[in-house]
Amino acid sequence: MAEKKKSRISRPALVLGVLSVVLIVLAIIFFAGGGREKVDRLIDANVPKAPAVAGGSAEARTVTLFFLDDDDDFLHRETRQVAAGPTADEEAERALAELIKGSEKGLLSPLPPQTKVRQVFIGKDGVATVDLSRDVAEKFSYGSTMELAAVYAVVNTLAFNFKAVKKVVILVEGAERETLGGHVDLTRAFLPDYSLVAR
């Protein structure tokens, strides 16, 4: 009888011992490597990478924008940093967004601040197509000088900063528009004109 009791007690103890060892080994494997890889992959997949911050970052590029001055009818240069890449189209969109945001030196933006850059596409033929929101025409009353400045602030900003850009077409809400305010024909592609820029 005593021997039977011993064998009954030792079997469950043995099974518990084996299970404990297996659990300890699995826990060591999980915490030593398997679980960490899964977490890293989830972090990479779900957390968007922040764009490069303006400043001295290696992932920023300097662009030249063109604004007006109260004292004359010329466009004046102002440099700004924008996040670089991943495509020239996206850099061009950021440059125009900075132009719309306005000057940091007290110059005047010829574009209404409500304007949005819907898209910029730079074709292989050197024609950049700029699609602006309707605010560019509806939120501003243009005289002939201001309308010319608005068009060439966009055209010169793109052509000056992006070597691939030779001409610029301006659309409003994805469609061709005759003018912004009745003065400058928008149904053609524009070459840059640096004679409008102050020296």
Keywords:
3-stranded mixed beta sheet; 20% strand; single chain; two-stranded antiparallel sheet; 199 residues; 4 helices
Main pleated sheet: 3 strands, mixed
* Estimated helix fraction: 40-55%
What distance separates the N and C termini?
A: 111 Å
Element order: H for helix, E for strand: HEEHEEHHE
Derived from helix and strand composition plus strand pairing, the structural class reads: alpha+beta
Protein architecture, described:
It is a single chain. With 199 residues, the chain is an alpha+beta fold. It has 2 domains: 47 residues; 137 residues, no CATH class. The protein has 4 helices and 5 strands; from the N terminus they run αββαββααβ. The protein has a 3-stranded mixed sheet. Helix 2 packs antiparallel against helix 4. The longest helix is centred in the first third of the chain and has 45 residues. It is elongated. The termini are far apart. The N terminus is likely disordered.
